[in-house]
Every structure is written in C-alpha cells, then in structure tokens.
Design goal:
- This protein is an alpha/beta fold.
- It has one domain: TIM Barrel (Alpha-Beta Barrel), CATH 3.20.20.
- The chain has seven helices and eight strands, in the order ββααβαβαβααβαββ.
- An eight-stranded mixed β-sheet has the order 1-2-3-4-5-6-7-8.
- Helix 7 links the parallel strand 6 and strand 7.
- The two termini are 31 Å apart.
- 37% of the residues are buried.
Amino acid sequence: MKENVSNPIYSITPFTLLDYAHKSACILWFAGCNMRCLYCYNPEIVLGKGAISFEKALTFLHSRKNLLDAVVFSGGECLLHKNCIQLITEVKKMGFLVKIDTNGSRPEVLQQLLEKKLIDYVALDFKAMPVHFEKITQSNLFLPFEKSLRLLVENGLPFEVRTTVHSDLIDKNHMQAMIQYLEQQNYQGNYYIQHFVNGATTLEKLGYSVKELEKENLSTARIKVHFRG
C-alpha cells in the first residue's frame, strides 16, 4: 500500500466527547489501511487519499491548546504512516494526552511509542480468531496483532480491546472463543462489542445484522463485555 506522505490525514474531527472517555478530544483520521474489513464503514478513508499535511494538523492543534484534553489518532490505520512517531512527539510536547486507535498490525511502531512513553491510551481492534481473520480482514496480519496485544498486556498502559460484529461473520461461538483467547493472553478489563452499522456504505455489501449477542451474558470473572451501538 502506498501512503500519501505529504498529506497523510484524510480529515479532522475538531471536537468529541465520545472517543476518549471523560476527555474532550479531537480526532485525526489517517488515510489508508492494510486491512480491508468487510464491514468497514469508512471506505472513503481506507481507500481514499489524505488532504491534510502534518504541518496543517499541527497548526490546528496549536489553536486547540488549553481547550482540548486529548488527540485521537485514528483511521484507516494511523501507525502505517511515515513520521507518525514524530507527529505524536510534537503533539505530546503541546501537552495533549494521546490515544491511538489501531488494528495492531504495526507492533514495531507501537513498541517504540510505548518505550518513549508517547501514548496514554490505546483502543486495539480484535478482528477475529485466526480461522476467520483472513476472510474478515482480507489480510494475513493476525500474528502482528497478537504481538501488539502482548506488548500492551506486558506494558501495563491503559487500553481497551474492541470488536466490530456482523451476525453473518461472527456469532456467539466465535465471540466466546475470542474471549477465551483474550484470557489466555492475560488480558483483563473491558471488552467492547461494536455492532455493524446498518445502512452504512461499507467495503462489502452486507445485509441487516441481527443484534442477538446482546441477549447473551458473555462476561467472565476477568473480562467485562460491553455493547456499543
């Protein structure tokens, strides 16, 4: 995948209270992704090109100093982009908290960010178990995801795991296997299940998704399952 180095950012959401718990934030949406998840409702970001340079993003962020608590790096896949560590370094220098939304496919970049203490919170997307991962993501990136999960568990940085669910792709049995896998990886805490966005334009044409999982008690002693959307 070629990245747009000069203009890596697709768009900026100037204000949100939803994407970083208990914090006011803005979101930098990075163009491009190395996965093609069938249910993805941001195809224009994943397949599109960026329109905003790092320099313009920094100018915007300077105007938000002392007004916002945090900056969320999302996409697409924000950690794919050249100089993302440099940009995050500059954002931290401004005094913002930094949250990363990632599919976990770049553990080497995540490791550098952790070692340099440049991030404050991570939302890690758990797409599927290996048997379903390639079909759902159109990629073979489960092992990098697994390495990222282990890095976060071992580091102790606050983070959450989340999964987007479509009833044709992931059912109760799949979900239980994923929860068991997280326990085996020594993850404990919140696990967020996000429902497929019905009616959205997605990479693959998917029909209505039935919200059957909400009827199930999927939480365990170590993992609390929450439903979003």
